[in-house]
Amino acid sequence: MRTSLALASAFAALTTAFPISSPVTVSTPFNPLNLLSLIPKYLPAPPPGSCPLTSVQQPSSSLPTPQSGLTLALVAIGRGTQNYTCADSTVNTIPAAIGANATLFNASCIASKMSDDMLNSITAGFESMSVDQIPLDNIGIHYFVDTTTPAFVINGLGTNIMKKSNSTNAPNNTNGDVAWLKLDAPSTAVSNMVKEVYRLNTQGGSQPSNCSGMPPTFEVQYAADYFFYV
C-alpha cells in the first residue's frame, strides 16, 4: 500500500511539472509500478549537471547543514542492499552492519523540478523494483572499501572515499528504513571531488532485531536519495 500511494502521488507531480502532450495509456489491470516507466516521457535523459540545483533543498532533519562554500553537484537515487553479518543464529546476537552495495541513478532533474515529497515518493517506488527496471540514467555505484568506509564512483565526479560523521533516525524508521547520514571526505582523501554526501529519504534496509534463524551474511533491500556536495 505504501508503494502504491507513493507512486500515484509521484505520477501526479510528474504530469503537473511536465504537461502531457498526448494521451497516456496505462496497462490493465492497474499496476502502480507501470507509472515509473513513464518518467522518461517527461524527463528526457540529461547529461550530468544539466539541471540547475541552486534552489534544491534537503528534507528537514537534525543532521548538520552542508559546509559553507560547498555546492550541490548531484542528486542521485541509490538502489541496492544494506549488508549484514551474524556471528551465530541465536536471539541473543544482533546483526552487525558490514556495508552496502547500490547502483546510483541521476535524479538531479527530478529534484530540480519537484518537491522533496515527490522525490521521496519516487524513491519509495524504486525500493520494490530491480535495478534494470529503473527508468533513469545510471550515474555510478556505491560500495564499501571496508566495513566502515563508504565509496562512490560517479560519472563526472570520480571515485570518492567518505567517512560517516553524523547519523539520525529516519522519520519512518518503524517501517524498517535505515538511518539518514552525513558523510564527509576524510583528510586523507586528497583526490576526492566530493566533500560531503547526505543519505536521505531512506526506504527499507534495516536489519532484523536479532540473528534468530539468520544466515552468517545476508542483505536487506533499500533505496535512498543521495545529495553530493563539491
Mean of the pLDDT scores? 84
- The helix content is 10-25%
Rg is 18 Å
* Strand residue content: 25-35%
Major beta sheet, strand line-up: 5-4-3-2-1-9-8-7-6
Spans of 5+ residues with little confidence (pLDDT < 50)? 15-46
Global morphology: globular
Could you describe the largest sheet, including whether it forms a barrel?
A: 9 strands, antiparallel
**What class, by secondary structure content?**
alpha+beta
Number of strands: 9
Elements, N to C (H/E): HHEEHHEEEEEEE
| Number of continuous helical runs | 4
Terminus-to-terminus distance:
37 Å
Structural notes for this entry:
The chain has four helices and nine strands, in the order H-H-E-E-H-H-E-E-E-E-E-E-E. With 230 residues, the chain is α+β, with helices and mostly antiparallel strands. Strand 3 and strand 4 (149-154) form a beta hairpin.
A few lines on this structure:
By secondary structure, the chain is of the alpha+beta class. It is 16% helix and 33% strand. The termini are far apart.
Task: Write a concise keyword list for the protein shown above.
230 residues; 9 strands; 4 helices
